[in-house]
Amino acid sequence: MADFLGTGWQFPIRVNGRGGLGWASGAEAVAQAIWIILATPRRSRIMEPDFGCGIHDFVFAPNNAATRAGIETEVRRALIRWEPRIDVLSVRATEHRDAPNTLLVEVSYRIRANNAAHNIVYPFYINEGAA
After folding, report:
1. What are the sequence ranges of the domains in the chain?
2. Could you tell me which residue ranges the IraD/Gp25-like domain spans (predicted)?
3. Torsion angle, CA of 7/114/78/30, rounded to 10 degrees?
């Protein structure tokens, strides 16, 4: 099954114990690809300017329901477009109870190849430049 899901460099890129590149495969490769999509602002890659996620447009947005809904929409849109190995089951952005400028974006997804459900929580920081 890991062959079907692919193998690629670990993210972040690491050197393994033998001095070569670290590799990720299977569900780990999918999770790392999701993280890369969410962490990449759109228009930041010259050769593929549409790649990435629009959540970075919300960095200075107020922490309110409209912002959280917009973030959820952008995450869902990016994953549907850029990660064909998954079905997005849900996306939920909630305020971190101990850090009001941190949103926890929980993504639940199913890997199409084996119907296995997974989730990740991506921390997203807003209002970092606010006084």
Report:
1. 2-42+51-125
2. 25-115
3. -30
Start-to-end CA distance of the chain, whole Å, equals 50
> Using 50, 70 and 90 to split pLDDT, how confident is the model at 76?
very high
**Closest to 36 in 3D by CA, of 21, 15, 51:** 51
- Percent of all residues in the chain with a pLDDT value above 70, rounded to a whole number: 84
The answer, yes or no, to whether residue 72 has pLDDT greater than 90, is yes
* Strand partners of residue 88: 109
CA max distance for the chain: 50
Q: Count other C-beta atoms under 10 Å from residue 38's C-beta.
A: 21
